[in-house]
Amino acid sequence: MTETALILIDVQRGFDDAEFWGPRNNPGAEANMKALLDAWQERRLPVVLVHHDSVKPDSPLRPGQPGNDFKPELDGARPDLVFGKQVNSAFIGDVDLDAWLRKRGITSFVLAGIQTNFCCETTARMGGNLGYDVTFALDATFTFDLPEVTADELYRVTAANLANQFATVKSTKDILAELS
């Protein structure tokens, strides 16, 4: 039986900069991310932390800036793998995530983090295309308004885009209940 990894995407302090990003949705996302992390660590299941290393000069996610650091909800994390990326997908980063997962016989993962419709959705799509059994913890993600589209609308569209194509979309509560 293979283990299911938890992949937390871009859970970084720079996303707290409301002036830079604008209005966000799902204020409970971080608590759900932490609940998933705690459950995975209690069971000694694989945990992967990915951070976005922006190359944009004005981004709060640039390396060397406080915003590049992980949020406090990840304090005490004992990840099996930590790496950076400069694009939307965690499969295109400083580490070959696909090779790392396959070497360990991991064929499924739960995905959570920031932003729902960019890095999280892109990683879920690529994971599905690569043959992984992807569970998308929707309520353990959040995003920001875009011109003409609210964060809540983007959140719902991501769920619809992923469901039954690239990933199974579930709540943190349902994921945790399945671990018990």
Automatic annotation (TrEMBL):
- Which SUPFAM superfamilies does this entry report, sorted A to Z? Isochorismatase-like hydrolases (SSF52499)
The organism's superkingdom is given as Bacteria
Q: Which GO terms describe its molecular function?
A: hydrolase activity
Q: Where is the Isochorismatase-like domain?
A: 4-173
Q: Which UniProt keywords apply?
A: Hydrolase
Q: Which InterPro entries match?
A: Isochorismatase-like_dom (IPR000868), Isochorismatase-like_hydrls (IPR050272), Isochorismatase-like_sf (IPR036380)
* Record-linked PANTHER family: ISOCHORISMATASE HYDROLASE (PTHR43540:SF1), PEROXYUREIDOACRYLATE/UREIDOACRYLATE AMIDOHYDROLASE-RELATED (PTHR43540)
**The protein's name:** Isochorismatase
Q: What taxonomic classification does the UniProt entry list for its organism? A: Bacteria, Bacillati, Actinomycetota, Actinomycetes, Pseudonocardiales
